[in-house]
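Objective 1b: paired records.
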Amino acid sequence: MIASGIHIAAPGLAAALGNVARLSRTLLCLAGVAALVVALRFGVYEYFHGEGQVLAHLRDALHL
């Protein structure tokens, strides 16, 4: 009989890889949220103290 998937010999290894993948997704999501918060904060500051172009560019980048 031919196996249809990858066989991982150690069940502990599969759990460890799952934890690493979950941690990686969480860190990438948090980094994205942090980047968005920084861009919005800078955009609001620039809106009130500058020309207001940053929020317009951010809106265009997000297709809103």
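Objective 1b, second protein:
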Amino acid sequence: MGTDNLIQNWERNWKKIQEKDRKAKEEGVLKGRYIQEQYADGYAIYEIVRENKKSVRIKVCVNIGDDWIIPYWGEEATIDKDHALKNIGWRDHMDNLVANHKRR
């Protein structure tokens, strides 16, 4: 696979993740949203695949670039729901700031 094809594949996969996230946000659910955890020179991206009362189940998203995996989470893990909510809240806040700035 050539570099151009690889990048196109990454971009296509990233758009799928963002679309799933947008739909879940509109529906007001956590399942389908993603969190990004800083690691090395970038981020590990995990999709929320199940929501429980106090925790969420996450699964790493792959084929979107560096494909970092957080060592203490691995490919799939159950994490504190509050951590996921803060992570998503920060991302949503930053997205709103950027969108508001662009409208000026």
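The chain has one domain: 3-103. Residues 8 and 64 are 10 Å apart (CA to CA).
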